[in-house]
Amino acid sequence: MQLLTPHVYWAQRRGEIFLRVDLSDAKNLNISVEENTLQFRGQGHGAKGENEYKFSLEFREPVRPEVEHRSTQRQVDIRVRKQSEHWWDRLTQQEKKPLFLAPDFDRWLTESDVEMELKNKEEERINSIRVESRVPKDPFLGVKRGYLFMYNLVQFLGFSWIFVNMTVRLFILGQDSFYDTFHSTADMMYFCQMMAVLEVVNPLLGLVRTAFLPALLQVTGRNVILFVIFGCLDEMQNKAVVFFVFYLWSCVEIFRYPFYMLGVVGTEWKLLTWLRYSLWIPLYPLGTIAEAVAVVQSLSLFDETLMFALPLPSLLGGSLSFSYSLRLYLILILIYIIHLYILW
């Protein structure tokens, strides 16, 4: 295989030399600095096609022996550090520039360019400080953050209690725990869902950036399931669907609330972030399906008891069952889920 010299482009900063070797899909690279001379050897596709390429450069002034390089599909990037930080008038010891060497105009900066760049950055920093100093600080910022932190902490503890309680009972009682979930966890779920009304209020007060409408739909939907379907119909309280609704809700919230809680104090735990957004994908539709099953099971009960039925004139049938509202609710749930996943 013929040994050739590739095209090499260079640029510098006060303390570094940058070399770009025009060699694509490079392999078998051997790059080193010996006696202040850079030695390069490698195989790849260059100006003369697929061949082995080699070159050497004796630097103008001393450099450190450590060489950093990175190979991409298009080129090989090399960085060499100078022994002393100052600008060189040329790259090589010899005054005549090698034929294969040319300036890298994509990275080329003169000493005056760098000084101007640093000056502009310093001016931008000073201007940003001035702007920040003119922006009035919120005197209640600490109170707001404290309130949001405590709210998310309380909700996390509440849903954690429900999750642990249901998990322990499931291991001890097995499927029998499905049928008394409401009586063992309803009080805590009532508390958490009444607290959740604050999630509708917080966007209105500007405390969080969450959109008002999604928060309203989620809180309203859950509270209809909890307070109207489970809370008002004794027949529903002993059904297995209560277990699945409560368990799926708590599985989502034990990751969502600590994620928000850490966000209030400007902290991120990457594992928690991944769990919060990854588990949401299967758990949210499963929770919605469980809610829909609960609604369907309650339709006949509302028809029989006429609970919450709307009185109508006798000519129109006497009353309008609340089950029709729930049927409309099922359609809205379906539309909302489809819309949510399209946006996602």
From TrEMBL:
Any Gene Ontology biological process: sphingolipid biosynthetic process
Residues in CS domain copies: 3-92
EC assignment: 4.2.1.134
Pathway connected to this protein: Lipid metabolism; fatty acid biosynthesis
Protein's membrane topology: Multi-pass membrane protein
Transmembrane regions: 147-172, 211-233, 240-259, 279-302, 322-342
Transmembrane as UniProt keyword: yes
Annotated coiled-coil segments of the chain: none
Location(s) in or outside the cell: Endoplasmic reticulum membrane
Catalysed reactions listed for this entry: a very-long-chain (3R)-3-hydroxyacyl-CoA = a very-long-chain (2E)-enoyl-CoA + H2O; (3R)-hydroxyhexadecanoyl-CoA = (2E)-hexadecenoyl-CoA + H2O
Keyword Endoplasmic reticulum: yes
Entry GO terms, CC: endoplasmic reticulum membrane
Gene3D superfamilies (alphabetical): 2.60.40.790
GO molecular function: very-long-chain (3R)-3-hydroxyacyl-CoA dehydratase activity
Family (UniProt): Belongs to the very long-chain fatty acids dehydratase HACD family.
Protein name: Very-long-chain (3R)-3-hydroxyacyl-CoA dehydratase
Natural source organism: Neogobius melanostomus (round goby)
Higher taxonomy: Eukaryota, Metazoa, Chordata, Craniata, Vertebrata
